[in-house]
TrEMBL record:
This is gamma-glutamylcyclotransferase. The active site is at E182 (proton acceptor). InterPro entries: G-Glutamylcylcotransferase (IPR017939). PANTHER family: GAMMA-GLUTAMYLCYCLOTRANSFERASE. Residues 1-21, 37-76 are annotated as: Disordered.
Length: 362
């Protein structure tokens, strides 16, 4: 099992209004909006030159670059860059340039026929039920079956074309920082995928017509499907139905804002806007969310502190720390299934059946 540890507990929709120690914990883990946001619109970043894209075919298959050390060793970084594919919240200036402080050298919008967008990475019940992820895609079948594609009324599984995103050209040290902020290698694997530059159009082509190039991306393998063993692997904790949970409105807004800032095709932006977010609709759920955070927040904050201490110069955590994160998040979800869901209501999917008198804000 691997979960987006650092992202999950710093990604919630509104600051908790509790007082005292719990209030400080909640404020720390929920405050994403940075007052030091860098005003660096995506449109001002140069387009990645074709020569750099062509050079991607000779690069290592996995994240073998090491972060340069200060001083003379910094000269080794000159001329060396990493092409990184973003498809989730890192599309957004607020997250990528603001919160994470990444300054891309160049960028280009792309489609990736071998991947598809999913929202199946478990997050935090009641706050961030799931996060964006990528899965292997069979272009001939338009999808790889990694779980039931039910609950289509929530729209998150309706995209059938290849992955749409942005490839940023970044320094090796910035790429190490990206890995560190995405769970230190516990949440995702670094893989190379084949990308194609998106043409200027309102729609995403079914098949690419532009030259291919390679880019690194962070990939969390999903449940194994015995019918397509080459496309899916078992490598992380998953929910029984990966299509069940809804992403939060805050998280969806980051992705949709990024798609707008990058001028991704209107067809894809329309899809993002149609995804229905998870919403707390009853007082019982609101109480459960507060209590859940008060119990599990301290454990995860302690894990964050240890993670910052032990990440290496590539942003990766040691194996024992990855196992600790697995234990915390597995235990959290088992606790939710056994106790919280039945006592306080659904923390993954909007409850549309709540009585009006129980509705939050009523």
């Amino acid at each position: 099992m691997a979960t987006p540890v650092s992202q999950a507990w710093t990604s919630t929709s509104e600051p908790n209004r509790s007082t005292g120690a719990l209030g400080r914990i909640a404020q720390h883990v929920t405050n994403l909006r940075s007052s030091d946001f860098l005003e660096c619109p995506a449109t001002r970043t140069p387009r990645t030159p074709q020569e750099r894209l062509d050079a991607s075919w000779t690069e290592p298959a996995r994240g073998t670059r090491r972060e340069p050390k200060p001083g003379a060793a910094a000269a080794e970084e000159q001329g060396k860059t990493v092409l990184y594919l973003a498809y989730g919240s890192n599309l957004c200036n607020e997250t990528f340039r603001g919160m994470r402080g990444i300054r891309p050298i160049s960028q280009v919008n792309v489609m990736v026929p071998e991947l598809r967008l999913t929202f199946d990475l478990p997050g935090i019940p009641y706050r961030e039920p799931c996060f964006a992820n990528s899965a292997r895609r069979d272009p001939a079948e338009h999808r790889c079956s990694t779980g039931p594609l039910s609950h289509t009324n929530y729209h998150k599984d309706r995209w059938r074309k290849g992955m749409v995103g942005c490839v940023y050209e970044v320094t090796p040290s910035d790429y190490a920082h990206i890995i560190a902020t995405e769970g230190g290698g516990a949440s995702y694997h670094d893989i190379l995928v084949t990308c194609h530059v998106l043409p200027d159009s309102d729609t995403v082509p079914d098949s690419p017509s532009t030259p291919a190039f390679k880019a690194h991306t962070l990939f969390a393998p999903a449940i194994k499907d015995t019918s397509t063993p080459d496309l899916c692997t078992t490598d992380r904790f998953t929910r029984p139905d990966p299509s069940y949970a809804q992403p939060s409105a805050r998280y969806l807004k980051l992705i949709a804002d990024g798609a707008s800032e990058l001028s991704l095709p209107a067809e894809y932006q329309d899809y993002l806007h149609q995804i229905r977010p998870y919403t707390i609709t009853t007082k019982r759920q609101a109480i459960g969310a507060t209590l859940f955070l008060s119990i599990w927040g301290p454990f995860v904050l302690l894990f964050f502190t240890i993670t910052k201490m032990f990440q290496d110069d590539r942003g990766r955590s040691p194996k024992w720390l990855v196992l600790l994160g697995e234990m915390i998040f597995t235990s959290m979800w088992l606790n939710y299934d056994a106790v919280w869901k039945g006592s306080f209501g659904d923390g993954e999917r909007t409850d549309d059946d709540g009585d009006d008198e129980k509705n939050v804000g009523m």
